[in-house]
Known about the structure:
The chain is of the alpha+beta class. The chain has 3 helices and 5 strands; from the N terminus they run E-H-E-E-H-E-E-H. The chain has a 5-stranded mixed beta barrel with strand order 1-3-2-4-5. A hairpin with a 6-residue loop joins strand 2 (29-43) and strand 3 (50-65). Residues 107-126 have low confidence and may be disordered.
Amino acid sequence: MSDTGLPFFVYGTLLPGEPNHDRFLRGRTCQERPAVLPGALLYEGPGYPYAVEGHGTVHGALVTAAPGAYAELLGLLDDLEEFLGPGHPRNLYERVAREAVPAPGVPHEPGPGDSGAREPGAGQPGPGQPGPVRAWVYLAAGAVARSLRTGGTLVPGGDWLSRRPPPARRTP
């Protein structure tokens, strides 16, 4: 399958409620649903996180571009993530296609990168359960990833939103 038109897996400042969500995604998406990215670890960055390939799971969202907005959204996200092209030495992130898994209990509509087939079997979800969806994800580029693996701070549970303190209780 071609990687053209894939949804995006986002896990940091592009999540709903985070600073870049409204700036980059509002009005440019037709679907956003909670999902996880297996085979990755999440590290703290300077105000934003980095996902790195590893033995863990990153929590985020699968985002599908609205009809007619794909090229614009791809360009905006490439610029935001400082992705200049595959393997470019000045990349902050690499844009790679990976399998993300929609959260259970979330309505699932097949889209690009997802056949919609749900065959029960070894390690596969049963009928009607969300299965893996091929999506673009921005992973830390080579030098950044090496630095994080040797001295970075992991985000607990791979969930960027968990780093925020819970909202203060309001009294009437």
